[in-house]
Amino acid sequence: MVPFEYYNPTKILFGEGKIAKLGKEIAKSGVKKVLLHYGKGSIFKNGVYDQVVETLKKHNIAYVELGGVKPNPVISKVQEAIKLISEENIDGIIAVGGGSVIDSAKAIAAGSKYDGNVWDFFEGKAAPESAIPLFVVLTLSATGSEGNPFGVVTKEEENKKWAFSGGVHTFPRVSVIDPTVQFSLPANQTVNGAIDAMSHIFELYLDGTPENDAIEAYAEGLLKSLMKHVKVLLEQPYNLESRSQLALCAMLALNGTTRIGRLGGDWATHTIEHSVSAFYDIPHGEGLSILFPAWMMYNLDIASPKLAKLGGALFGIDEGSDKKSAIQFIHKLREFYSEIGAPVTLSERAVSRDMLPTLAENAAIIAPIGRLKKLYKEDILNIYKLAYE
Ligand code: NZQ
Ligand code: ZN
Beta-carbon neighbour count of residue 169 at 10 Å? Predict the structure, then answer.
């Protein structure tokens, strides 16, 4: 096991009806006026907006709305919000949505306490030293953003889809996870969410940590549960137990617990994916179902033992020969992704073959990437080629 430090201050309110408790939490924190931040309108159709407004009114929290956050959120929206916060004397923010809204809100929360350009955080030119308090009502379980300090935002004009961490400052103070609000998700978004959560577990599991039995067994348990319940939800979208299990596992996948005693994760596949969703604006989960099997295949020599272990745990593949079992696992994983309706090749998402060098160039801006094996532009291009068809 690798020595570690673990810290996660986010209070989670989990279960049906918990949105009603949020107003009291915000009032307790001393916040008087919040920015109510949301996406393109799903919260008006499924009643979440009404529930949020009700609890704010009940506890006399004033609010100013700013919706319109798009999936794969953009820095121009963050900058618009920071301006509004200063004009309106807002002292807190409530993000109502999926990862895109929450990530946008994290950048706003930290950016509104920073004199320079908020994009500096993403370029590593500055680190947040404070942030206004952030509260979350999660509507899509996928990213784990509801329980971590990370935000991913795109600078549109440069096609840079980059991440930042505000450390202690950008953990949500309180996150409400009411799985019933996810009944309204389209099937493909439920699938994308499960794949994103699975990929977070893979990034950590496959980072080259030699041994960590307890956390690996925990990670395997989360993966099994995600795989089981996403299938149930495709048949029964209103199954509350499955919605709850998926929501719980997605949060745990990236709230620091799967990182305990590990080297910190590989994360090359995430970087490689972010370039695809920066240029093609496809959902993050779709990019991952296409690219993770390709990354695994490319790193077969070094990743085989752990891939074979996953094959045993998830598909009952005989661990006999590491390499053979690892290849079997990758095939099974792709089959599973196809079965749940996710794409497994870049060509399925109309990515042009001619664009692969441009994507590789974009992902390699911060090269070398990856911990298990350091990857450079040529490696990244090879992975795109493996994922092409
Ligand atoms: O915009 P609205 O109308 O709300 O619709 C959204 C959006 O179209 C819809 N949706 C959300 N909840 C719904 C719903 N529709 C019906 N019923 C509901 N209950 O779903 C669509 C996708 O939403 P989005 O927030 O974009 O999805 P997700 O949660 O997957 O977030 C993806 C973003 O998070 C980043 C991704 O790269 C991507 O930009 N990530 C953030 C991470 C983090 N902060 O830790 C880590 C991840 O690896 C990831 O990179
Ligand atoms: Zn992800």
Answer: 19
Query: Is the CB of 147 inside a 6 Å radius of any atom of ligand 1?
Result: no
* Percentage of the residues of the chain whose pLDDT score is greater than 90: 99
CA of 90 to the centre of ligand 2 (A): 30
Residue nearest to atom 40 of ligand 1 (CA): 143
CA distance 186 to 183: 9
The DSSP 8-state label assigned to residue 343 in this structure reads -
Confidence check: pLDDT of 376 > 80: yes
Q: Where in the chain is the domain with CATH 3.40.50.1970?
A: 11-181
Cβ–ligand 1 contact at 294 (below 6 Å): no
Minimal-distance CA residue to ligand 1 atom 15: 185
Give the distance (Å) from ligand 1 centre to CA of residue 308: 31
Topology of the domain comprising 187-388: Dehydroquinate synthase-like, alpha domain (1.20.1090)
Nearest CA to ligand 1 atom 42: 143
**Ligand 1, atom nearest to 100 Cα:** 25
Q: Which atom of ligand 1 is nearest to the CA of 42?
A: 3
CB distance 329 to 319 below 8 Å: no
Residue range(s) in the chain whose domain bears CATH number 1.20.1090.10: 187-388
Of the options 3.40.50.720, 3.40.1130.10, 3.50.50.60, 3.40.50.1970, the CATH number for the domain spanning 11-181: 3.40.50.1970
Q: Which ligand is nearest to the CA of 164?
A: 1
Q: How many Å lie between the centroid of ligand 2 and the Cα of residue 54?
A: 32
Q: Is 211 helix (H, G, I), strand (E, B) or coil?
A: coil
Q: Would the CB of 178 count as within 6 Å of ligand 1? A: no
Query: With a 6 A CB cut-off, is 46 part of the ligand 1 pocket?
Result: yes
C-alpha span between 291 and 273 (Å, rounded)? 7
Instruction: Report pLDDT digits (tens) over 320-351.
Output: 778 999 999 999 999 999 999 999 999 999 99
% pLDDT > 70, the chain: 100
Cα–Cα distance for residue pair 277/297, rounded to 1 Å: 21
Q: Is the pTM of this model over 0.90?
A: yes
Q: Are 6 and 168 in contact (CB under 8 A)?
A: no
| pLDDT tens string 3-34 | 999 999 999 999 999 999 999 999 999 999 99
385 Cα to the center of ligand 2, angstroms? 21
Phi–psi pair at 96, nearest 5 degrees: -120, 100
